[in-house]
Amino acid sequence: MSAPATSWVVDLRPGEWHTQVAGRVATGDRFAGLYSTRRQDAAQLHALLVGDGAVSCLRTLLTPDADGSLSYRSLTPQVPAAFWYERAMHDLSGVLPVGHPRLDPLLLARQPGHPSPRPGYAAAETLEKRRHSRATERHGPVDVTGGGVFTLPLGPVRSGVVESIEFLIETPGEDIPHLNIRPHYKHRGVAKRFETLPVADGILIAERVEGVASVAHALAFTHAVETLGQVTPPRRAGLIRVIHAELERIANHLDVAMRLCDAAGLAVPFSRFGWHKESVLRLISRLCGNRFGRSVVCVGGVRAEPTLSPAVLCGQLAAIVQRIRADREALMVDASFLDRLRGTGRLDPSLAASHGALGPVGRAAGLADDARRRPYDGYTELPTVAGTTVDGGGDVLARLRVRWAEIETSVELIEAACDRLKTLSDPAIATRVPVSDGFALGWAEAPQGEVLYALEIRDGVIGRCFARTASFHNMLLFHDVFASDVFTDFPFIEASFGLCYAGVAM
Predict the structure, then answer these.
(1) What domain range includes position 71?
(2) What is the H or E stretch that residue 283 is in?
(3) CATH (domain of 266)
(4) Exposure winner among 54, 213, 313, 468, fewest CB in 10 A?
């Protein structure tokens, strides 16, 4: 099994760093993330870029200004995709992007005087808890004015089992001319929870960054650790990893289909696709003992062989998929259902390309990017993932069609991986990985899109771990898909994005 695609790191002076990041994005590289690591009074900025089959990190060190603050020239005017990343970095690290167009709190609505958590600095203060006092409620921003316009707060708590997030919908009653997103209610301090943990325990946090994508996050984390240790897992482990990653993808895509049916008020298909999702989760549980595939992936391979043989697994999956296909065909000729999806929540392909939209959201707008095309684990010996795209201009219907196609691709990959496991004589499922200090990148393709991990090991423990989710990256685009839609289209658009809000707030 060959090693995954390359990654590299470049250290630059602040001015040169800004020029290089903006220049590389302008010439075709995809902006993939930005974060800060605090080092005593200084801060090291990391910009993640993807291009030419490689993931790179451009770094620079910020030292305090004369007044003791940490600041730099904002990337957002030249790189709009950095808009949320710079807001998040300001919340968590206190770094000021000078010239940022809107530096409202995003992940952490700190009260005046509260210190920032400063990820990467183990001795940093924690946010103090105010006792016997009431925190001031901050009113959301107002961007649309005029007669009859009002702000409708949706969330953070809604009916049903929905993750907490607040949408501030500015509307005259039906149209949605503007939408603000406040995800900080679900902030869990994930970046700080990684710090000082032994490397083997870091995977427990990674699996819980986005619970519905536990396997993908575990893979991205372990890929970074394995890169530092210069170790490639055994072939058998790589194929088992593929099986679990693709079953996770199928379950998530079925969840989106189920939620779309619920938005349309179609009780029978809602129940049917809920049953199919449950069947896949139960199959995962029979394979490893956990419905979300947790504790399967370990550094250097996997913890155990699947409890079902490849033949039995393929047989049970085939039965589930046969039922899925029958219900899919019935659903996709339902005129009332398709009318609610067609043309709704359209993401302009040019905007998707400039932002670097990930996963099904990007592929529905014509972008073929898929982290599995920078092969890792068993994907190196399986049929190349084409990067499914559809014609349709990036609307809700196009995003659903991408998911149907990806389910079929996942089934093919699982069957191919099982065929190879049947003939593989080497029983090894894990390799010892030495813990090595240093910095490395790891990635995997989650159901929501590419997951990127930037990991720094210091003195044998985790010093800093930045988990970049596709949900966080794509959520910014949610502002821009309501151009001709009304309030009743909201649940369709939200479901079609398929994002995990825990992966947005972190």
Answers:
(1) 7-98
(2) helix 267-288
(3) 1.10.645.10
(4) 54
Chain segment 396-436, per-residue pLDDT in tens: 999 999 999 999 999 999 999 999 999 999 999 999 999 99
Q: Is residue 486 part of a domain?
A: no
Triad 100, 106, 111: Cα angle to 5°: 100
How many angstroms from the chain centroid is the CA of residue 74?
A: 24
Q: What is the CATH number of the domain that holds 33?
A: 3.30.460.80
User: Looking at the structure, do residues 360 and 243 belong to the same domain, yes or no?
Assistant: yes
Q: pTM to 2 decimals? A: 0.94
Question: pLDDT digits over 52-92, tens only?
Answer: 889 999 999 999 998 888 999 999 999 999 999 999 999 99
| C-alpha–C-alpha distance, residues 278 and 274, integer Å | 6
**210 and 332 assigned to the same domain:** yes
Asked whether residue 350 is domain-assigned, the answer is yes
* Per-residue pLDDT at 162: 81
Q: Are 92 and 167 in contact (CB under 8 A)?
A: no
Task: Answer with the one of 75, 98, 121 that is the final residue of a domain.
Answer: 98
124 confidence band (pLDDT: 50, 70, 90): very low
pLDDT score for 129: 44
Q: What is the count of structural domains for the chain?
A: 2
User: CB within 8 A of 429, min separation 6: which ones?
Assistant: 234, 236, 237, 240, 301, 302, 303, 304, 305
Domain final residue pick, 72, 98, 124: 98
More confident residue, 6 or 114: 114
Type of residue found at 300: G
Q: In what order do the strands lie in the sheet with 178-182?
A: 150-154, 166-171, 178-182
Nearest in space to 264 (alpha carbons), one of 334, 330, 329, 168: 334
Residues 76 and 200 both lie in one domain: no
DSSP letter at 184 equals: G
Identity of the residue numbered 125:
E
Q: Is 150 helix (H, G, I), strand (E, B) or coil?
A: strand
Residue 394 to residue 379: CA distance in whole angstroms: 27
* Whether residue 389 sits in one domain with residue 246: yes
Q: What size, in residues, is the chain?
A: 506
Q: How confident is the model at residue 135 (pLDDT cuts 50, 70, 90)?
A: very low
Distance, CA of 480 to CA of 499 (rounded, Å): 15
Alpha-carbon distance values, 343 to 111, 477, 482 (Å): 42, 16, 11
